[in-house]
Design a protein that fits this description.
Blueprint lengths: L6 H81 L9 H15 L6 E8 L2 H8 L1 H18 L5 E4 L4 E7 L3 H17 L2 E3 L2 E3 L3 E7 L6 H17 L5 E3 L2
Parallel strand pairs: 6-7
Antiparallel strand pairs: 1-3, 1-6, 2-3, 4-5
Length: 247
C-alpha cells in the first residue's frame, strides 16, 4: 500500500489497525487476567475449604478417640464391678466364699514352699441361732454385719477377712507366725465381746469362737482349713468365746 502511493496515509492506516489489534489483545489479556484472578480466588477458597474440612476431620477423629476410650474405660469398670459383685458378700461387704477361697488358694500357692509364713483362722458367732430366734432374722443380719466390721477393724490391712458361711468367717494372715496369728485373733475376739451390739434399742451381747492353723510346708488348702475347723470345734467344746490353735 505504501508502494502504490499516498504513503503517509497508508502508514497511518496500518498503524491505526495495529493499535486496534493491540486494543483487542489488551482486552483479551484483561479478560484472561480477570479469569485467572477469579480462578486463583476460587482455588484459594477451595484450599481454605479443604483445610477446614481437614481440621473438622481431625477434631472428629480426636472426639471419636475420646469416646472410644471412655467406652473402653466404662466397660473395664463394669467388668470390675461384676467381678467385685461376684466375689463380694452383699450384707457385709467382705469377700464371699468364692472370692475368699480364690484368695486362700493363691496365698497357699505362694507360701507352700515354706519360705513365707501363712496363718489361717476361722471363727463364727456363738449361739447365733438363739440370736435369730430371740430378736429376729433382721437383727441377726445386723449382728453379722457389725461383727464383720469389728473384725476387719482389728486385723492388719494386708489380712483378708471373708464371710464363708451364714455366721462363719475366715481370715487369711500372710507373713504371720503362730504367735502373731493367735494374738491377732485374740484381739479380734476381745473387740467383738467388748461392747454389746445395739439394734432397735436392744442390747445384744455377742461372742465368737476361733480356730487358727499355721500352714505347713507343702500343705494343701483343704488340710489347712480342716485343721482350723478342728481347732474351732475344740473352741466350741471348751466353752466358746476362746481362740484355739490347731495341732
Amino acid at each position: 500500500r505504501v508502494g502504490s502511493g499516498a504513503g503517509r496515509t497508508a502508514t497511518d492506516e496500518i498503524l491505526e489497525e495495529l493499535r486496534g489489534i493491540e486494543t483487542i489483545e489488551q482486552d483479551l489479556l484483561a479478560v484472561q487476567t480477570e479469569d485467572a484472578r477469579a480462578k486463583a480466588v476460587a482455588n484459594e477458597r477451595y484450599q481454605y475449604a479443604l483445610t477446614l474440612i481437614g481440621i473438622l476431620l481431625l477434631g472428629l477423629s480426636a472426639w471419636a478417640t475420646i469416646l472410644v476410650r471412655r467406652a473402653l474405660a466404662a466397660e473395664a469398670e463394669a467388668r470390675r464391678m461384676l467381678q467385685r459383685t461376684a466375689s463380694s458378700d452383699e450384707m457385709t461387704g467382705l469377700s464371699n466364699r468364692r472370692g475368699f477361697m480364690d484368695a486362700l488358694h493363691r496365698s497357699v500357692a505362694r507360701s507352700s514352699d515354706g519360705r513365707k509364713e501363712l496363718a489361717y483362722a476361722i471363727f463364727d458367732i456363738d449361739r447365733f441361732k438363739s440370736i435369730n430366734d430371740t430378736y429376729g432374722h433382721a437383727a441377726g443380719d445386723a449382728v453379722i454385719a457389725e461383727v464383720a466390721r469389728r473384725a476387719v477393724a482389728t486385723f492388719r490391712a494386708r489380712d483378708l477377712v471373708g464371710r464363708i458361711g451364714g455366721e462363719e468367717f475366715g481370715v487369711i494372715l500372710p507373713a504371720a507366725n503362730q504367735a502373731e496369728a493367735m494374738e491377732a485373733c485374740a484381739r479380734m475376739r476381745a473387740a467383738i465381746e467388748a461392747e454389746p451390739i445395739m439394734i432397735d434399742g436392744k442390747s445384744i451381747g455377742v461372742t465368737v469362737s476361733v480356730g487358727v492353723s499355721q500352714l505347713h510346708r507343702e500343705e494343701t488348702v483343704e488340710s489347712l482349713m480342716a485343721r482350723a475347723d478342728h481347732a474351732l470345734y475344740e473352741a466350741k467344746n471348751s466353752g466358746r468365746n476362746v481362740v484355739r490353735l490347731a495341732a
